[in-house]
Amino acid sequence: MKSRFWALALAASATLMVLPAQAQKSQSADYVVAVVNSEPITNNEVRAAMQRVTEQLKAQRQATPGADELRQGVLERLISDRAQLQLAAESGIRMDEAAVDLAEQNLARQNQMELETFRQRMAKEGISATALRSQLREQLILTRLREREVDARVRVSDQDVDRALLEQQAANTDPLAQEINLAQLLVAVPEKADEALVSQLQAQAQALLARARAGEDFAALAKQFSDADRGKSGEFGLRRADRYPPSFVQATQSVAVGSVSDLVRSGAGFHILKVLERRAPSALNRSVVQTHVSHILLRTGPALSQAAAQAKLADLRERIVSGKTDFASAARENSQDGSAAQGGDLGWAGPGMFVPEFEEVMNRLTDRQISNPVVSRFGVHLIQLLERRRVELSPREVRELVRNQLRETKLEEAYVSWTRDVRERAYVELREPPQ
């Protein structure tokens, strides 16, 4: 759990390894704190990363670990990244100048600046063009390495999907997810009946229950004695259990098909229920809740810190909520992804379509509600819920949904395992600070 925490905490700022020159000058004399396969990691690098993580956690209103724990987590992440960069170099992964040029141009475009203006702004903040391009190159290399070493090796076979569907079906014991066909015989109780009349009607219902359990035809009894609709001999028809009154589901949950429940008391009277059919939920016939959302995305990086992105989006949210602008206009003017032209509209999406940190917040929103700034691996978002709907999935769509869920799980497991393996194979020497 801790390794995953540090991965998330540092991933968003992985391209911010360069301290502004002014900050560097204000620090004490630097020294080496670790050596990874002969490459040093300095104290200033660790302090800079600690500062970024602290700012991120405060912006997210999360508790900040103690100094020792924070330093240890940051140092481990820096060691892991350094070992991965070395592996990339050994594997012949290079990033040409054209790829770095494109990444730099994209950063400038995301900040709505011309490239030269962007470089001047970075220089004013103490980040030279050379340092910026070096960081961009490292991140491109790490991404290429992870795609080759992890993503490309994760496969989800048809057999994996079949097995997952069978496991889900076997594990689904929720009685409300089952389909049940019940028939009822109702002995009605008038609204203002006194205790004597209620007792008399209960005895009548108990006698009818005994006859049904003795083997008399339930349909005939319902047609003759039921005070409910007798058109279909009291049969409701096959339907999901959550469409029945909860008392009916509870009374018949352990009743075998063809058998009759105990008396069920309701405001209408005394019910006798017979279970005609019960179907387990099918793994290939299910419904899901789809969500229609819009978002505004600000990508964090050398040009925009996470804290600055959160502050900007918080201001945008206030302007939208107060009516000074609308969400779609704000998205078109500010969002840094392909949905900007559509006012941030991401369309309809099923479960698992968005990264967990985005989806978790989205699922808590009510109609037209706008979230506070949300940090994900892609940057910082504002999310607006437009509407929700429940749709039935075809067998093919169910399989694709399960396949995507399996792939996401396998990717996360493979990535954690791979990073651990790279770290363990590296020679790491930890050094004490100079006395």
Domain count, please report it.
Answer: 3
Return Rg in Å. 31 Å
> Under CATH, the topology of the largest domain is which?
Triger factor/SurA peptide-binding fold
Approximate strand percentage: 15-25%
The CATH homologous superfamily of the largest domain is named: Porin chaperone SurA, peptide-binding domain
Uncertain residue segments: 1-27
Keywords:
435 residues; alpha+beta; Triger factor/SurA peptide-binding fold; Chitinase A, domain 3; 3 domains; four-stranded antiparallel sheet; elongated; disordered N terminus
Describe the protein in words.
With 435 residues, this protein is an alpha+beta fold. It folds into three domains: 2-154, Triger factor/SurA peptide-binding fold; 175-279, Roll (Chitinase A, domain 3), CATH 3.10.50; 286-392, Chitinase A, domain 3 (Roll), CATH 3.10.50. The protein is built from 15 helices and eleven strands. The strands form three sheets. The protein has a four-stranded antiparallel sheet with strand order 4-3-6-5, with helices on both faces. A four-stranded antiparallel sheet has the order 8-7-10-9, sandwiched between helices. A hairpin with a 2-residue loop joins β9 (374-376) and β10. The relative contact order is 0.12.
